[in-house]
Every structure is written in structure tokens, then in C-alpha cells.
Amino acid sequence: MEEITTGDRQSILLRVGAGLVALALIGCIALVCVGLVAWLGPTLAHGNDDVHAAGVITAIGPGQTFVLRTASGQRLTFSCVAQCRASWGHLQRHLRERAHTDVYYVQGPNKTLMALDVD
After folding, report:
1. Does the domain made of 51-118 have the CATH classification 2.40.50.140?
2. Helix (H) or strand (E) holding 59
3. One digit per residue, pLDDT tens: the chain, 119 residues?
4. In 47-117, which residue ranges form alpha helices assigned H by DSSP?
5. Domain-wise residue ranges, the chain
6. Do residues 103 and 68 lie in contact, with contact meaning Cβ atoms separated by under 8 Å?
7. In 3-state terms, what secondary structure has residue 92?
8. Whole-structure pTM over 0.85, yes or no?
9. Contact between 30 and 20 (Cβ < 8 Å)
């Protein structure tokens, strides 16, 4: 058997080190990209006119409406129209579980709140 020389060990360590640096660089780039998508995603999806509200759904209906209670206790009634990206089953699960809900919306005619995206 051949012995591993000091030069071979250094070469192996350099390759392992380069691999670890490459993995760390890829991980950092991925984290930055995920952060940018989370930060810019709603704006890119809905435009600059949307507003965000967060809270708990307290009622659904009648029709295509639901009520959201924010952390400050404010009750907002939303209308989920054609461009609304929300599943009624998903909304009912949020109501049943009292889950945190994010709503992106625009103000429509007669100051109605029209939901664009509900999650």
C-alpha cells in the first residue's frame, strides 16, 4: 500500500474546503433569493395598490364574504370576488381552527374591501 504524503493530505483538505465554501455560498444565495421573494412576492402578484391585513376569520358568509378580526380588535368585512385567490374550504378551515390569516385586498366602490389573496 502507498502511504499518503503530506502533499496529498493538503490537496484533499483543499478540495474539501473548497467544496464546503461552495456549499456555503450556494446556501447564502438561496437564503437571499427566498427573502427577496417573500418581501417582493405580494407586490409582484397584486401590484402596488394592495393593502395587507392579518388576523383571525370570525365569520363566513352570506355569499362570498368573510369577516376578519385583526390583532387590534378591528373587524373587517371582505368580499371575495372573481380575482380572489382563496378556496372556501381553506377559509372554513381557518375559521374552524382560528388560524392566523393574511389578506391582501383593495378598496372597491362604496368603500367595500375586495380580497385579492387570502392565506
Report:
1. yes
2. strand 51-60
3. 667 777 788 888 999 999 999 999 999 999 999 988 877 766 666 566 778 889 999 999 887 889 999 999 999 999 887 777 777 888 889 999 999 998 888 888 888 888 888 88
4. 88-97
5. 1-48, 51-118
6. yes
7. helix
8. no
9. no
